[in-house]
TrEMBL record:
Protein's name in the database: Fused response regulator/thioredoxin-disulfide reductase
GO molecular function (one): thioredoxin-disulfide reductase (NADPH) activity
Lineage: Bacteria, Bacillati, Actinomycetota, Actinomycetes, Micrococcales
Classification via InterPro entries: FAD/NAD-bd_sf, FAD/NAD-binding_dom, Ferredoxin-NADP_redctase_2
PANTHER family, per database record: THIOREDOXIN REDUCTASE 1-RELATED-RELATED
Catalytic reactions of this protein: [thioredoxin]-dithiol + NADP(+) = [thioredoxin]-disulfide + NADPH + H(+)
Domain FAD/NAD(P)-binding: 238-554
UniProt-listed Gene3D superfamilies: FAD/NAD(P)-binding domain
Domain of life: Bacteria
A Pfam family annotated for this UniProt entry: Pyr_redox_2
SUPFAM superfamilies assigned: FAD/NAD(P)-binding domain (SSF51905)
Entry keywords, A to Z: Flavoprotein, Oxidoreductase
Organism: Agromyces rhizosphaerae
């Protein structure tokens, strides 16, 4: 694999119009020629050049084309590029102002719906054209992050059959840490271990950027190793936020920016379930879409710059609400240390939800190795050449299927319902059809079958109405069904419904009466059954399962936090 900064990676410019070719080629070469090789090619030569690059073992970072419809088989240069290089970025070149032309607008939308392009790119009007370069720079950053064209700082050495290997890799990835994952018997792994003087003993190892080797590190040790804060404050904080998903991060941004001493406690990695989404297309302000992990990292940095403190990899295991002015949070410190405590004048619960487990006993031996709950970018890339099943009918399942389809030989979406129309956005349904994802409605997983070596090989799908079974090949299964609130640790501290969702606002009085809420003022909109304790995002009963909604709830709840603190601060 070619690495930027060593041998320049090709950028393919496919332009039918000579004027477009000249201006774009000149603008690209002036800015990127040190690290990327700009190759202008004629439309009728583009697919052959892509094949040449693939056969030579080269890479391809970006394809820009103003006339994609030229392939002999009726496809486009974009489809040819994506099939040969799954991580390539693709943009349709259009003249400035042509978005007002109905034919051009229809072409752009058609290519987007068919997952042919990532976005359109306006041809530069002057030099330097920084708007043009902003788009190109984003393309190249995404390519470098998604492909192997990067300099890994960490290396995970472990058996793919061990779930812990996958957990460590995903924790690093969601933390924004570039890393390699090597099998223990790989030559590169043997060299790294020899250089470090450490032997593989059957448990995963992590080699840090500084060359230290961690032997099966805990989540907290791994977080500390790549520069994340894991300690707890000694002083009382104004606000403790439990969970660093979109809702918790939004609350942290607004609370810290408004002067509250804010602590965010996260048991895994920032971003929650949203961080596993490969591309959120309908989030306001990101016309090209945004990777969930990228959105989470931006929000984390924003909150940190405002002064919010974070305690990473620190699960909260208990909430004591006995003192209305000082809530006590019990925090797990890992197997080698005593639990810690945090005192907070107010608390926001933003722990989100976890995917429901499938009640299929034959899947159990494969969980964490080839059966996953949720989808990470690392696991998606690991499915190259495999047949993959995605279980679920919501937007998360659709986004996962699109991402995995970049790499897998085949992707089948298994849905219990009769259609996707009631549970998935229309744009996702259209894109799934465009990339050839097989949709199996009224179906569920009934049985898993291993191969002779004990690895997952096939799945029995059962029709929910007739009971008929069909066996399909499957090298991996990703489950994104339903959701269960992560509130077991809360116990009886606040009022929950029978599914575990936290009841908030007027529903507290309606459900529990004055026995639960014996106070003169009514509960605030997102306030739980204890004044000063709030719930936002998916963990709250009645929430809308959308990132934008979670961000909104986290933001507006801070005003209620101020009002609660004011009740104690008033003379």
């Amino acid at each position: 694999m070619t690495t930027p900064g060593a041998t320049p990676v090709p950028v393919l410019l496919v332009a039918a119009a000579p004027a477009t070719r000249d201006v774009v080629c000149d603008e690209l070469a002036r800015r990127y020629s040190a690290d990327y090789r700009v190759e202008p090619v004629a439309p009728d030569e583009a697919t052959a050049r892509i094949a040449d690059l693939r056969n030579a073992g080269d890479d391809l970072a970006l394809v820009l084309a103003d006339d994609p419809q030229h392939a002999e088989d009726g496809g486009t240069v974009f489809t040819a590029a994506k099939e040969a290089f799954p991580d390539v970025r693709r943009g349709l070149l259009i003249p400035w102002g042509s978005w007002a032309d109905p034919a051009m607008a229809a072409q752009v939308r058609q290519l987007l719906a068919g997952v042919q392009i990532d976005t359109y790119v306006v041809v530069p009007r002057h030099s330097p054209d920084e708007r043009f370069h902003r788009t190109i720079a984003e393309f190249l950053e995404e390519f470098a992050r998604g492909a192997d064209a990067r300099h890994p700082g960490f290396t995970v050495i472990g058996d793919d059959a061990q779930p812990r290997t996958h957990v460590l890799s995903n924790l690093l990835l969601r933390g924004g840490v570039h890393h390699d994952r090597l099998a223990p018997d790989a030559p590169d792994a043997a060299k790294l271990l020899d250089d470090s003087g450490v032997a593989y003993s059957g448990v995963p190892l992590v080699r840090t950027a500084e060359g230290r080797v961690l032997v099966d590190p805990s989540d907290t040790e791994l977080a500390s190793a790549h520069g994340l804060e894991t300690t707890l404050p000694d002083e009382v904080v104004d606000l403790a936020i439990v969970g660093a998903g979109p809702a918790g991060l939004a609350a942290a941004v607004y609370a810290a920016s408004e002067g509250l001493t804010t602590l965010v406690l996260e048991s895994e990695s920032v971003g929650g379930q949203a961080a596993s989404s490969s591309l959120i297309r309908n989030y306001l302000g990101f016309p090209r879409g945004v990777a969930g992990s990228d959105l989470a990292q931006r929000a984390y940095q924003q909150a940190w710059m405002f002064g919010a403190r974070f305690a990473h990899a620190r699960p909260v295991t208990g909430l004591d609400t006995g003192d209305p002015a000082r809530f006590r949070l019990t925090v797990d410190a890992g197997p080698a240390a005593r639990p810690g405590e945090v005192l907070a004048r107010s608390v926001i619960l933003a722990t989100g939800v976890s995917y429901r487990r499938l009640a299929v006993p034959s899947l159990k031996p494969f969980i964490g190795a080839t059966v996953f709950y949720g989808v990470s970018a690392a696991e998606a890339r690991a499915q190259t050449g495999r047949d993959v099943l995605i279980v679920g009918g919501g937007n998360s399942a659709g986004q996962a299927a699109l991402h995995v389809a970049r790499y897998a030989r085949s992707v089948t979406l298994v849905v219990r319902g009769v259609s996707l129309a009631d549970s998935m956005s229309q744009y996702l349904i259209e894109q799934l059809e465009a990339v050839g994802v097989v949709i199996r409605t009224e179906s569920r997983i009934a049985m898993a079958h291993p191969d002779d070596e004990g690895r997952l090989a096939a799945i029995d799908l059962e029709h929910t109405a007739t009971g008929a079974r069909t066996t399909v090949p499957a090298g991996a299964v990703f489950v994104t069904i339903g959701a269960r609130p992560r509130t077991d640790w809360v116990g009886d501290a606040v009022l929950r419904d029978r599914w575990g969702s936290i009841i908030t606002g007027p529903d507290v009085v309606a459900e529990g009466g004055r026995r639960v809420w014996p106070h003169e003022r009514p509960p605030a909109p997102n306030e739980a059954s204890v004044p000063g304790v709030f719930a936002v995002g998916d963990v709250r009963r009645g929430s809308i399962k959308r990132v934008a909604s979670a961000v909104g709830e986290g933001s507006v709840t801070v005003s209620s936090v101020h009002r609660h603190l004011g009740e104690f601060d008033a003379p």
